[in-house]
Design brief:
Layout: H1 2-54, H2 57-70, H3 84-96, E1 101-108, E2 113-120, E3 123-126, H4 139-145, E4 153-154, E5 158-161, E6 167-178, E7 184-193, H5 195-204, E8 209-215, E9 220-222, H6 238-251, E10 257-259, E11 263-272, E12 277-280, E13 295-302, H7 304-344
Antiparallel strand pairs: 1-2, 1-7, 2-3, 4-6, 5-6, 6-7, 8-9, 8-13, 10-11, 11-12, 11-13
Helix pairs in contact: 1-7
Length: about 350
């Protein structure tokens, strides 16, 4: 009887030691999982940061360029017709030096184009006066007239047909022009070829990570799968591809990070404000003209790699736990047979 109690005590001690070790292993397992998950989250944030910071550089530079041009002495003349040739030459040299700019126009306060210079097939062309248009009826011109001095109105990104019949994404900058007596003379309008920075977003995508630029309704403006871009039918849409997570991102006002079972999302809102093209963390800019004029830059990382690592850890722990259970069962079996053997004796 005494021997049985000793054996039982040893069995209980081994059992509790194994149970204690299992609990420690389980906590260790949870920590390893969290470590893997947070490691990927940190990596997504680190890889996204340069894209979020650098994506501003090109659009911001365009805004600075048009503000610089609006302050030219040629626009200070009371009679601008005397300075038209000089303005044409300045516009020609400006457009000719940067292929990112599609065209630049000076439009008077009545909406009539006075000078327009554009690029086509690697050529810079000054538009003949007979081909200049009146754009007074356009919403964009009307909005440009009420922009405060020294600020820039920025249009939404949209497709525009080029001279070769191919459509390309563009957006427009405009700023008012005043003469030396601070009288409104008209508007400068600069059309920018958006691919110059949309390509940075498309080319960011690699392996299990993709970057997108979407509008407030989830329409793709930049996607590594370019056939999905500018689809107004809704067939190809961020909400279609990413479901509930996409809705949360579109409706978010202060978050910049989200994750679900399959993906990690890092995102920032881009506000084409009345001053310049800016990325805002969290709440939207109060300077926006409408609720729908913001864009969202999103980096989506597939959790396949981290889920695979978690599966490997789980398999390893399950193997250890199964071995520990087997040891307990073996000891209990040995104790059982030993007990009944002694009882028979």
């Amino acid at each position: 009887m005494k021997n049985n109690l000793v054996k039982l005590g040893i069995l209980l001690l081994v059992f509790f030691l194994i149970a204690f070790n299992t609990v420690i292993d389980f906590k260790s397992y949870k920590k390893e999982i969290e470590s893997k998950r947070f490691s990927q989250i940190d990596m997504v944030k680190l890889r996204s940061l340069p894209l979020f910071l650098e994506i501003n550089n090109f659009p911001r530079g365009a805004g600075d360029d048009i503000l610089f041009l609006s302050k030219l002495n040629e626009f200070k003349n009371i009679n601008l017709s005397e300075a038209e040739n000089s303005i044409s030459n300045i516009f020609f040299n400006f457009i000719d030096q940067d292929t990112a700019y599609r065209n630049i126009s000076y439009i008077d306060a009545t909406g009539q184009e006075i000078v327009r210079v554009y690029q086509s097939n690697n050529q810079t062309i000054i538009v003949n006066k007979n081909n200049l248009q009146n754009v007074a009826a356009t919403d964009y011109f009307k909005r440009s007239l009420v922009v405060p001095s020294g600020q820039v109105a920025i249009s939404s990104i949209r497709l525009e047909e080029l001279d070769n019949g191919v459509s390309a994404p563009i957006f427009k900058y405009s700023t008012p022009v005043y003469d030396s007596k601070n009288k409104l003379k008209g508007v400068l309008e600069l059309t920018v070829q958006a691919d110059y920075f949309l390509n940075d977003i498309r080319n960011f995508s690699h392996n299990d990570e993709k970057a997108f630029l979407i509008d407030a309704k989830g329409m793709y403006l930049a996607n590594v799968d370019q056939f999905k871009e500018f689809d107004s039918t809704g067939k190809y849409n961020f909400q279609v591809d990413y479901g509930e997570a996409a809705k949360k991102i579109l409706n978010s006002t202060d978050e910049t990070f989200l994750e679900d079972e399959s993906y990690i999302y890092s995102f920032q809102k881009i506000i084409p404000s009345l001053s310049r093209f800016e990325i805002y963390k969290g709440s939207l800019s109060k300077n926006r003209a409408t609720v729908d004029d913001y864009l969202i830059l999103v980096v989506v990382s597939n959790k396949t790699s981290v889920n695979s690592a978690i599966s490997d850890i789980f398999l390893e722990k399950i193997t250890v736990w199964a071995l520990q259970v087997c040891i307990v069962v073996l000891i209990m079996t040995l104790f059982y047979f030993s007990y009944w053997k002694q009882k028979k004796i």
